[in-house]
Amino acid sequence: MFIKNTWYVAAWAHEITEAAPFSRTLLGKPVVMWRNADGSITALPDRCPHRGAPLSQGRIEQGQLRCMYHGMLFNSDGACTHIPGQSRMPPGADLQRFPVVERNKWVWIWMGDPELADPSLIPDTFWLDSPDWRYRPDYMHYQVNYLLISDNLLDFSHLAFVHEKTLGGSAAYAEVRSEIDKLPNGLHIERWHMDSTPAPFVTNLVGWTHNVDRWNIYDFVMPGILLMDSGSARAGTGARQGNRSEAVEFRSAQALTPETEHSSHYFFSQAHNFSLDDASVTDNLHAGLLAGFKEDWEMLHAQARVLDLDPDFKMMPLGVDTALGYFRALVNKNLAAERKLSAAA
Amino acid sequence: MFIKNTWYVAAWAHEITEAAPFSRTLLGKPVVMWRNADGSITALPDRCPHRGAPLSQGRIEQGQLRCMYHGMLFNSDGACTHIPGQSRMPPGADLQRFPVVERNKWVWIWMGDPELADPSLIPDTFWLDSPDWRYRPDYMHYQVNYLLISDNLLDFSHLAFVHEKTLGGSAAYAEVRSEIDKLPNGLHIERWHMDSTPAPFVTNLVGWTHNVDRWNIYDFVMPGILLMDSGSARAGTGARQGNRSEAVEFRSAQALTPETEHSSHYFFSQAHNFSLDDASVTDNLHAGLLAGFKEDWEMLHAQARVLDLDPDFKMMPLGVDTALGYFRALVNKNLAAERKLSAAA
Amino acid sequence: MFIKNTWYVAAWAHEITEAAPFSRTLLGKPVVMWRNADGSITALPDRCPHRGAPLSQGRIEQGQLRCMYHGMLFNSDGACTHIPGQSRMPPGADLQRFPVVERNKWVWIWMGDPELADPSLIPDTFWLDSPDWRYRPDYMHYQVNYLLISDNLLDFSHLAFVHEKTLGGSAAYAEVRSEIDKLPNGLHIERWHMDSTPAPFVTNLVGWTHNVDRWNIYDFVMPGILLMDSGSARAGTGARQGNRSEAVEFRSAQALTPETEHSSHYFFSQAHNFSLDDASVTDNLHAGLLAGFKEDWEMLHAQARVLDLDPDFKMMPLGVDTALGYFRALVNKNLAAERKLSAAA
């Protein structure tokens, strides 16, 4: 069960081209995407209505997509325009195009009721397409349900343990309390760790060994989007009061999209706004992020293997689980609302 | 659910020897086969009645098969002739031998009621054992239900797309209408493509670039046997009227046998009746066929992955589906008849 | 379904260290083990009560185990001693320690009611820790239910077939009748093969080609422990009457522990009491054993694949199955008693 009436990230913009169809399974449904001559993106079910062949095995012919099993041709609106060997278009030959919005390098898709697909609901990720920020876009595939990943992202106390030698650092980081505010569609979380040792990736990046005031300030919103302002400043220079003149700042955009009940897509990036002309800084920052995210990957797959052994296991809420508990409740509330809506329809 | 009272191809004749037992799972049942001194073939369940060990892990001892777990010995009729450590033969120790007929290099097996196993029901594949034809026997394993493969073989319009660069060629091939006649146990299909570019494999084989009149004339019969006369003649030389003096002719024998609900055996060959002394022609023809069959293999596995995502998906019949629709109905009719028969028994 | 109130082998002693936690899934439950400063072993569920992360991904901190997901800390009794970010210990934070006994190089664990964990029930394997015997400890992982392996160990007639060229030898070995005595928790089996060719591994080990009197005398007890005195003596020198002066003697300890319903742990060893200073004898004996055990592994996995094809298949008891039939009945009796006990509770 997935929430349908919400915007999901389907791809990085550069993944979708005019040359060849691109396939990704989203919310259990195969989706094929390609770019039209006007730059817009078409997303259709990646399943020929005829016999279920994946259209992504097909080819683009002058902006239309040809199924390469028996040759049905679909235009950029999903309408079937040719069936070899017959002139009549039978009912059911057209495919329904998914609403898609490309914004700031992410391709957003709406898998629910197209009537409700309001682009103004898409979260702002301006730094993904700004000359003031640099980053390397990336992607990981998880063989776990996406909620295990959102749990992970909603409690940064794990940085002190999972990421001790990468993104985290001192165990004291785990003792810090976050401030958590509810948003209509998620949470706002602020976590300050004052006068702490710098995270290993910061030391790697800018050479700092002196203590820092360190922050992670982020929104985590439906269906699983993390938008974060983070950074570190020389301890005591007033970063918390707004002075970032002695700070390194980052902007992170991370998006979870379920592939199936047991697998997930994870789109991520971490941007910097200094040394913009030095590609090695971008690379170094990305390498540090990736090292940490591989640690998450290992931990979450290990966790999933344990959970699979006993479906009756009940997790035990701790103080650190306030945010993720709230988010899971929000997910369930949305799922219940959609069930009610579809039962009424 | 598989049709049982019909002849299935179990193996190529050369696969079954006197030296060692050969195992293949057919219709969900493991079967062990070996060749007797008189040249006949014994086929038994590949499962020792004692503890279920596969007899095919055993060895042939003077024409009998020894289970190499605890030593039960079975003769060529399936009768148990020795149990180590005991002299009494308990009821249930004998195995039931499956009717087998070796004909024209194929080993046919009857998995249903032995009383009904009439060898005259076996389709004629004379060219598999004729000095007038040459071919290389081959086999592929599919991880899909056999009906997806029979669908594929019952609609050659896919040649224009799946096999554009191998067995097919021009997209116009897909616009041709087949003539379809119902047979009591299958279909007879005739497909003529007049004045067309030659298929790539024909150009490869005999160097033709001129246009051809091209035919595929075949029976497709229960349980999944394709018997085809195909070829190409210089366009306008009257092949359709019977003059094949300027033609290259082929005979194809292809057989599907379910392994399980989700996997299938595919035995195939394509024979030629010219340049019989030139092995490179046989090899070239086979290589072209295999290139095409690998394209089918890719497409059908991709199709099966899409179908697996949504068991509720209903295929949409097109004009090209007449033959396969009829064949699937015939399969269902046979299955229903066998269910009725076994309910009555 | 597994018997819980019995001692299982969880590990070889050398597998459990102070340095790092060790994980093994036993009876479907992940278990983490480590060695304490006093040499004792702690075994806990390998699942953090918080969110189910495997504790074995964690680290030992001064004798306590830290979960490296969010930092919960557990002492050697399983009590939670620290939760980052909160001072209150919520109910349910403690883990229940499994009773563990280390004896003669094997680590025994009790997965059932701790009140019933009586160390005196542990079978005697003195030769695993005696200066009079030498062996190499070993382990194999099986992807089959443990009962298929205990079936195998309860009927040595298979040596003549599965192990013809390793542990077995002449087919006549399979004709020998074992003497079987029931024990309260298993069976006592005696098998003598008089005046037989020696087993290939014995010829390899000591060069004998003359005939021997050969014995396998063993207890096979709950839950799946084989304790064997075996050997060969020059034929006619009175070994059966107690004279082992012209014999080579072995002691074998083998233990089965279910991992899941479909996989098993197999701990094994074969010790010798001669040429104690010659490590090549120990290695040679072990290599011979391992060659045979790989043959079992192949046969049992092949058997499991056949059994998986048809869950309705019923095995056919033969004379050789007396012991394994009795043992399976004993297993079922124990399972029924535990079900009754747990229903009453």
UniProtKB/TrEMBL annotation, chains A, B, C:
Keywords (A to Z) from UniProt: 2Fe-2S, Dioxygenase, Iron, Iron-sulfur, Metal-binding, Oxidoreductase
Location of the Rieske domain: 7-109
Origin: domain of life: Bacteria
InterPro entries for the chain: ARHD_Rieske_2Fe_2S (IPR015881), Cholesterol_7-desaturase (IPR050584), Rieske_2Fe-2S (IPR017941), Rieske_2Fe-2S_sf (IPR036922), VanA_C_cat (IPR044043)
The keyword Oxidoreductase is assigned to this record: yes
GO MF entries: dioxygenase activity
SUPFAM superfamilies: Bet v1-like, ISP domain
Pfam families: Rieske, VanA_C
PANTHER family: 3-KETOSTEROID-9-ALPHA-MONOOXYGENASE, OXYGENASE COMPONENT, IRON-SULFUR DOMAIN CONTAINING PROTEIN
Protein name: Aromatic ring-hydroxylating dioxygenase subunit alpha
Native species: Mesopusillimonas faecipullorum
